[in-house]
## 1
Amino acid sequence: MAKAVKQGDLVKSIAGRDAGKTFLVVSVKEKFAFVVDGKTRKTVKPKKKNVKHLEKFSNVSIIELAEKIKNGIPVGNDRVYRAVKTEQQKLQED
Amino acid sequence: MITVKTDAEIACMRESGKLTKNVLDLIGREIRIGMTTKELDKIAYDYIKSCGAYPSFLGYSGYPASICASIDDVVVHGIPSDDVVIKDGQLVSIDVGVVYNGWQGDAARTFMVGNVSQEKRKLVKVTEECFFKAIERLRDGTPLGDIGYQVQTHAENNGFSVVRALVGHGIGREMHEDPTVPNYGKKGTGIRLKKGMTIAIEPMINAGVYQVDFMSDGWTVRTRDRKPSAHYENTIAITENGVEILTL
């Protein structure tokens, strides 16, 4: 099964100055994904990353939040930050 | 993190790879005009379970079936359905994953059903050739970028395009491990492959433009210009002097 980064995925950056950090994928356009984490990359200006520099962090998808950000509906950065952190913690506990 | 497998672990992957190949061979024998893709899914599921293995796609991120059955302009991740009937002249890409004793096998083939046009035949042939071109010079120490370079060069020299939004992957105890294996790229770039790494190389070649659309079901990926696409995949292990194909 081909690997694809999709909207709503939680991903880890593996290249660039943000390597190692976890992000939420807001949208994907061909080989680029637009990602936010609510702290360093906020919802008003997602970071454009090459999908080959991202790896899927978990099988959890937060599609509702990603869809809202993509459509310009205001979502608090704290909400994104909390969502990303919560999933990160859950995974570490497992 | 990229995992390097021991010889014993690769032997386990050989087993799951063999089962994966058997499923594809079985589907190749059974596939015919008038069948639904759901019937193919049932054949695969029954066979895998009868071998004491498990279909790794089933339940993966909520995927509802044991195989991906992608027809014509569907690049990958077509969900088998009772409503999708295979017709004469279609390309049917079947992707299957098997987990046996905790080790994964992943492979895909594109089957030509009935009287298939010359263009589609060429597309399938070139897609297979892309895979074999990619592994031709692979060995311990080869840069990962060489795979993408070979696939892209061969596909584009034949007038086709390479999908960018989906990539191959490392494989082992998990279906999707590191590294990411794109079907495009520059020669001599990327990490160096090591003996014992196991990866799934999967050229997805489009007859038209390389852009694809993700459908609202969250899985199905179609070519943007709705021209046909072909898919060929094998799980391979890097050895000292070359590669071993585990699913062929």
## 2
Amino acid sequence: MSSVTLQNVVKRFHRFTAVHEVNLEIPDGAFVTLLGPSGCGKTTNLRMIAGLLDPTEGEILIGGKRVNDVPIHKRNLGIVFQNYALFPHKTVAENVAFGLKYRDVPKAEIAGRVQKALDLVQLPDVGTRYPKALSGGQQQRIALARAIVIEPDVLLLDEPLSALDANLREDMRVELKRIQEQIGVTTVFVTHDQSEALAMSDRIVVMSAGRIEQVGTPEEVYNTPASEFVASFLGASNILPARITGQDADTVHLEDPLFGAVPVPAAKAPALAGASRAKLVLRAEKLQIVAAGAPTPGMIAAPAFVETVDYQGQTVRYFVRVGNTQMQAINMIDERPYAQGEAVQAAFRPKDCAALPES
Amino acid sequence: MSIEARERRQPWILLSPALTTIGLLLFVPLLFIVVYSFWLRTATGADQAGFYLDNWREALSDPFYRDILLFTLKIAAITTLVCAVMGYPAAYFIARSRGNKAILLLLLMLPFWISYIIRTMSWINILGVSGALNSLLIWLGIISEPMQMLYNQTTVILGLVHFLLPFMILNVFVSLEGIDVTLEDAANSLGATKWEAFLQVTLPLSLPGLAAGGLLCFVLGAGTYITPLVLGGPTDAMFANLVYEAIITQLNWPLGSALSLMLLVVLGVLVMIYNRYLGMAQLMKGLG
């Protein structure tokens, strides 16, 4: 097991720059997710760590050693590919044993280690079958077994869950995290799915257009987004322009044209010193729709009316109009959802807000 | 008519023009040849209809025919091997190249636009006594008299390779195209070098294409008569030349028919053997 470090890493393809000056420290044993939309450079980063691509500039270190010039077959990494990349002409056991053949593992030991890996992914009895005879989820587990049986220094997962259907994906998410915790291997996980990132990661690296937007724990990136991009990429957020009317030790006072004065906790409004304008960020789950005229203790409220109702069973997503601005609210349903066209109030607690500098 | 019945009929409707053409132009003439092979050519030169086994007895018992058959199979085998060794790397290069794949494939097809006979005869201009190579060597002062490079076994094989190489490349290319490139990445990540990954993953998965290309080269090579006629010497006749000789020169259609059926049976058996092997290969490919 090893840490992974990227120092000023740049990757250009001809004139297109896929990755700009990325600096990243992935600690030993951590589960770090590279999250972003397609084309943000997350897979390019992963492929550079893997040794499938050469960085144009910068250094890549694994376990403190520079690996820029180390070919992929000497890096001792376990990679799980998006399409699993199981060898179709080899049995499951032969697939899992593949990497052991190149590691001077005594023949007698190979079968035992293959079986242990198959046990770990909870498919102990499929060794003699061919990959084609397994379901997508099972192939996924075999690909994982093949990657971890070699006891890699780093485990790289390239959108491994995206080819599975929704239910299976959630099961595998839990399973993958369990296995990672059990073997404790440093893991780099690439995904565009925010719920996967939030559920599995110790740290999330949010990327956009080849740059790192924010690095933090799932709670940090979710509750204190460092940029408008992060706020809107991780779940649905309402972003409102606001004026800064004052700042003190633990509060930043904002003035919003729709809701009036909003005191935002200073911890959730970093990097605003000296600015006069800011952006108020409010997650859709934190915006409560309440009946017109009902009391809203401890909340800031404004009259609104429901434009669209997106019913989702347990929850409902409203698009409401407040003044001339459309806002989104995701609420638990109490008895029945509000109807389209109904006059309501949009309300929130100021401590649920975050503020970003106006860029 | 039910939808199922219509769907069952549809393939036959679509196949009928091709089946009719093949039936009339291949199977009916083949039937004629079978019938002819049992006729007898009399001393007067006329064919006598009937059921005589004389042609078959001659074709099967005369060591002359057996030796030429074996020689034909040998030449075809060498040609196939050379095509495989030369064609595989070329196919791999085309399959793995980016962007200009279409141009490379077009270049591969280009020779098909020129008649096979012209392509074969072009070697006379290159290797002949007053051909390009001799002229160059004399001009360079390496030799003073032109060398006789044509009309031997090697030039026959050269001509056949020239003719058959694109078939090999295309077949291998198609099978390589069907192999997921991340399989090699996966093998590399597990510790295999590029070469080991190729031997362990890509080569076995491309064997069906190599086998298909090999069969095509072998069958086409074994059945040819133009290449040995144009580029071979007097002792380089292949089996199809015997058929040509019997039918065109001696006008002995019954014997020619028996000989051509003999070659057909030998190559047919080879195809059947391949078919059994392909059954396994298809399975392997099907697993991908």
